[in-house]
Amino acid sequence: MSFPETRPRRLRRSSSLRRMVRETTLSANTFMAPLFVAPGNTPRLEISSLPGQFHFSVAEVAREASELFELGVPSVILFGLPEKKDEVGSEAWHNDGVVQRAIRGIKRTVPEMTVAVDTCFCEYTTHGHCGIVVDGRVDNDATLENLGRLALSYARAGADLIAPSGMMDGAVGFIRESLDEEDLDEVGILAYAAKYASAYYGPFRVAVDSTPAFGDRQGYQMDPANLREAVREVAADIEEGADIVMVKPALAYLDVVAEIRREFDLPVAAYNVSGEYAMLKAGAERGWLDHDRVMLENLLAMRRAGADIILTYHAKEAARLLAKRA
């Protein structure tokens, strides 16, 4: 049938009709909130490159996690800042590191919250790369040994999900084996399976002081031009034991999210990264964009593309807005 018999606008003419036929929904249950944990006793210090985001003390991050949980956000992912750095990032796996203490604190305060932990070394190394550097390049296999130590440290502290983000070949399998050998088989792996060498990470690198001292990360993060390679990377991580796979960044890679969703049955996460967040904040500050509408439209686009989980710095404000509209 065609016009005038077919009139799609009939189902758009009221709010209740639009709700009835809505294909994609957005809720706080979808969100995972990134939180930054810093040494010291300053409760929170705003991050200059990420307005509205903070470096939290160990005690304060537990309170923030509790507030997020009350708003309906079921999970957080932790990033740590060390007191000191070295060539291999050894502070990352210390039993009393800021992240390990933050995990324990969150689990005491809000036991039901799912705690994921970014499992990488770029914040902890003097050179800012994601592993052990040998002759000017990251040594993949040597880095795996340290990733195993790091994963075990986080898991023993109570983490629910280990999230290797360095794009080291074999990392998921090595971590899975390390966890299973220590009877930590219930700890899951959220794999940064398709992480691109993106220019959208700039504000995050300011937040954790992780800009590489030399070179860049294009030798291990993915080429933004490649889609088929993402499918291969995800397939490899699933074969090695990943429980959730992630595409990072989100907005400029929605085609990748959609392709991964079509190809695989595992839960798919998308990371709404720092540059995406900061651009919206800057545009809204200048009056060029309606912040709340664009924020929800962006998040909805990630869901529509197929993301089951969205890692987003907007988690708290989006959850509040969605609660008001419920």
Uncertain runs with pLDDT below 50, 5 residues or more?
none
Radius of gyration: 20 Å
DSSP E strands, number:
12
Q: What level of helicity do the residues show?
A: 25-40%
Order of helices and strands: HEEEHEHEEEHEHEHHEHEHHEH
The average pLDDT is: 93
Please describe what this structure looks like:
The structure is a single chain. With 326 residues, this protein is an alpha/beta fold. The chain has one domain: TIM Barrel (Alpha-Beta Barrel), CATH 3.20.20.70. The protein is built from 11 helices and 12 strands. The protein has helices at 15-20, 58-70, 98-109, 140-157, 171-181, 202-208, 228-240, 254-263, 274-285, 291-305, 315-325; strands at residues 31-37, 44-47, 50-56, 75-80, 114-119, 133-134, 137-138, 161-164, 188-195, 244-248, 268-272, 309-312. The chain has an 8-stranded parallel barrel with strand order 1-4-5-8-9-10-11-12, surrounded by 9 helices. A two-stranded antiparallel sheet has the order 6-7. The longest helix has 18 residues, at 140-157. The chain is globular and about 70 Å long. The two termini are 36 Å apart.
What are the SSEs and their pairings?
Elements: H1 15-20, E1 31-37, E2 44-47, E3 50-56, H2 58-70, E4 75-80, H3 98-109, E5 114-119, E6 133-134, E7 137-138, H4 140-157, E8 161-164, H5 171-181, E9 188-195, H6 202-208, H7 228-240, E10 244-248, H8 254-263, E11 268-272, H9 274-285, H10 291-305, E12 309-312, H11 315-325
Parallel strand pairs: 1-3, 1-4, 1-12, 4-5, 5-8, 8-9, 9-10, 10-11, 11-12
Antiparallel strand pairs: 2-3, 6-7
